[in-house]
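P.,

For your records, the input lines for the assembly:
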Amino acid sequence: MDMMPAMAEAPARRGARNATALADPAILRHALAEAVLKLDPRRLLRNPVIFVTEIVALLVTVLAIRSAVLGQAWSFGAAIALWLWLTVLFATFAEAVAEGRGRAQADSLRRARSEARAKLLLRPDERSLWQPRDATELRVGDHVLVEAGDLIPSDGEVVEGIASVNEAAVTGESAPVIRESGGDRSAVTGGTLVVSDWIVVRITAAPGSTFLDRMIALVEGAARQKTPNEIALDILLAGLTIVFLIAVATLVGLASWNGQPPSVPVLAALLVTLIPTTIGGLLSAIGIAGMDRLVRFNVLATSGRAVEAAGDVDVLLLDKTGTITLGNRQAAAFIPARGVAERDLAEAAALASLADETPEGRSVLLFARERHGIEARTLPAGAVVVPFTAQTRISGLDLPEGRFRKGAVDALLRSLGGEVPEGFREAVDRIARAGGTPLAVARDGRLLGAIELKDIVKPGIRARFDELRRMGIRTVMVTGDNRLTAAAIAAEAGVDDFIAEATPEDKLAYIRRVQGEGRLVAMAGDGTNDAPALAQADVGLAMQTGTQAAREAGNMVDLDSDPTKLIEVVEIGKQLLITRGALTTFSIANDVAKYFAILPAIFVASYPELGALNVMHLASPESAILSAVIFNALIIVALVPLALRGVRYVPIGAAALLRRNLLIYGLGGIAAPFLGIKLVDLLLHLIGVA
Amino acid sequence: MTLNGWAQIALVLALVVAAALPLGRYIAAISAGRVTFLAPIERLILGVGGIDPARGMGWRAYTLAMLAANATGFVLLYALLRLQGVLPFNPQGFAGLSPWLAFNTAVSFVTNTNWQAYSGESAMSYLSQMAGLGVQNFLSASTGIALALAVSRAFASGGLRDLGNFWADFTRITLYLLLPLAIALGIAFVAMGIPQTLAPYAEATTLEGGRQVIPLGPAAFQVAIKHLGTNGGGFFGANSAHPFEGPSALATALQIWAQAVIPFALALAFGHIVGDRRQGRALMLVMLGYVLLGTGLIYAAEAAGNPLHIAAGLDPAMGNMEGKEVRFGLALTALFTATTTGASCGAVNAMIDSFTPLGGLVPMFLIQLGEVLPGGVGSGLYGMLVFALLAVFVAGLMVGRTPEYLGKKVQAREVKLAMLAVLVLPATILGFAAVSLVLPAAIASIQEAGPHGLSEMLYAYTSAAGNNGSAFGGLTADTPWLNTTLGIAMLLGRFAYVVPVMAIAGAVAAKPKLAASSGTFPTHGPLFAGLLAGVILILGGLQFMPALALGPLAEHFVLLAGKTF
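Structure tokens returned:
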């Protein structure tokens, strides 16, 4: 597993690049036009609640026109009709706004795609023989040459060469990355730019199905299908609509027992205010916004289903290196050999590391300064650097005052020969057992002691794991280290479990076992050997820097290649579900107040005494009914920002979260319309409509 | 309202809960096949039918077996009622019932409704009472409980292939639960003065020298199962208000206990079956809360009395005693009425027609809420589980996970079936009531003008569709239109509801049971109980508000204004 630790820290929160304000006027203008087009009943069929609202609006409109033609009173019917149409329009507008926010991104992506021209190789092994081709004409299996300054025409695998590639078109990150044949960095993405050298790429994606195409479809919401949870919620809303259709339709018979049945506009008003138009109107916007949040976070999900699954995850498999610990081991202690002062060892270690530019080497210098106040000198003239090689596994510096060396314990001891000081072996073993790596230090052929290198757990990660635990999510650390090392780091980081000496097969087996217990698993991975586990996991977050196989196997791709993001992905999934639940609860709870507004208004003609139920003291029956309908329409618009932004997610445990949200959206949903309807009624009264 | 009255209510409910605790554990043991003290009889019965009790049935097979058993019961009962004139044990020489009435009555007793468009003492032979109605009282109750146990088991563990064996459940519940309790209760009722005899009606000379016929019959044991099985069909026309069917306040208290104890115990049995007693307790808490609330509302409305009576000079301290038994008083009548309608029993010890408008609204609303508070034996529990699934689905999303109930994910299929079940009551009640209020043939049955007349019709279909069986009164129900449509309403309320519920059980049983964590929506404890109570009110009750506004609510405010019709 290679997680490219340097990448992991760099682009922490670059979501801002796509950030579009909620009220971007251009988007709103476009959305308004789109909202009108969406009024087409065939397009509304997907949304039963709003579809019924539109049919009812149509009916009331026709009746109002008829009344006007016949010279009867028509203004009340027309007012109801107007607000019913606005209800539908607000719902389509919410969806259009949500879609519009993705469109700007899609447009810039599309430009990158359309500009690409390919150099198609006639023979894969002959770089000089190529002919120009349009990117859209490339077939899977074609070989193309991409040289410095060229856009990579389509997704593929590097089969020859090495190049640095600017992937800003996809990731937003302008620092170039290395792409080379073989290994885990062979995948290239269409639309990205080769900035130096050349590569030969074998095309792996058919035109129209490249990563960039998928991304465009995703951000535009074109490929959007209803997720399982959305389908279930749609059924609930359709069921409620039928229930209230029955309640309102039968009212005609019931009310005629004692007096006249209410007029059609009044019944229409009652029906539309009772059916869950609020959540019905916002449901698809919530879904689109959820995907969009993920995209802004530089994570692409192949489907909404994957985002929902993220909310359900019970177990997170996290790689140790780069996710739980900082990418590199760091010096944590000096252990002098018998008869050596610790400060002497520290000085020798610092000098031996003076020319060592690796993070480990830097950490030795840093630690020597922190612990013993040894300032790093500038490299003196005449110093001879002994570089680290895989053969010697020793590095150091030759200075006039001595020869300083550090290296792997066995390698250095072998080069020194002679006696090993008493107790040194034991000390070195102790370091290894505790999860560290010992480095031996010598001066002029004399062993001075050892440096203990340790994995450093990322600051703040323990608190994150505690948070996850409160939400019922177990964290599992995956590492190639031996059990002892793994256990030590696991305890320090506060994960719930770990897999030591993990092979890809171990990971797959672990995922299968946990899934067998009825839990959902999420993991991040980038290598080809991660692919089976990524495919098996319920949420597989592949790294953009990873191989094509890994990217195909996962159901999400992180463009920043930061495995830590798995945690945020889970939170975004939860937020999506919470938003849906909160607005559903709010919408249904609204009905109570609407009854108190409309029922007395409807029946007050037959039974004037029912006016006692008019607890809001609305001005007149007409204004009461109109106020309820207006409130019902406006609440959709008022909640659009919440639907797009999502309800705030706080990791406080399910029981506390439920109590909090029930209080806000349940009780709030009961109380809000009482205030809102009264307010609208007052305004109507004030401007003299009622 | 008096302290004494509340003490009576508290005492009876305390006895219900106290008995429900061990009974719940016992029912769970029956469900698991661990109760065997009548094993030879059980083996004999199942052996005759060639049933292997260990062979499980999927939801379809289980439902079909249940439907077959009930269809057979219907045919036999219908034939018996039609032919009672030529059959023995008919000392009063009653003729066979009309086809309409026989259909209505047979449906009524098969569906555990016990709506009675007849009066027992002037229409039913002793054979019809014992072998017909009495037997169905047991079998419809066993059917309901068997279904509830099957549904409960679906939540118990993951990947279940079957829900148990219907015939084994059906037999064991009758044998181990209903028969022993009914025998004990029957003996107690005999001791309290309810007749149990095959002798013909007694003839007596009154003090004034007039002749009076006093109806008798094998009543005590039938009254026992009538309450235990939440059937509610009275032996006599006046039901538990008849001095032979409700001889004393003690007998009334015992009847309240009997009609509430099994539904409450089943909620607790559910907890035992799914291996988490807190789950059962939460459901029972909701049931108990509503029963208390309903009782309090009826009690308060009736104690406040009728303003017109008070204006005419009646003692306001008496409350509204019209149509109530002085022997029972307001408190026990309020509790009786709330439990009989909440529990889908349908026995009555007072004329609900004579209640104040609000006092009459509460029992009607308790039925409309879905007969889950605590609901009929079995039907109360599975109805409650439908609401629990919907509550979990609506609000459960707010914890940020796909909703799950007891480790079973609530997905599109369950929501669809639950909504289908929830649709049955409003469609049947409001549909039939609306048609009947414009159809001249139906309107002729209504006695009262004004909103009270609407309440009478609304209550009839509410009672039928809710499989309650209690009558508001004031409605001439023995007409072809009402007999037929009420019969259809009863069938829909029972079987159109239970088939989707069993389909839910089938879907739920097959699902894996997910392990609970601190991220799981907690479905025990007061928070969930409150949520469930709210969902029952909003999803089960709101659709009836317009109808109720035109009936009892309108009547209430009109009455306050001093107007009559």
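Two observations worth noting. The first helix of chain A runs from residue 5 to 9. Chain A touches chain B through 77 residues (CB under 8 Å).

Regards
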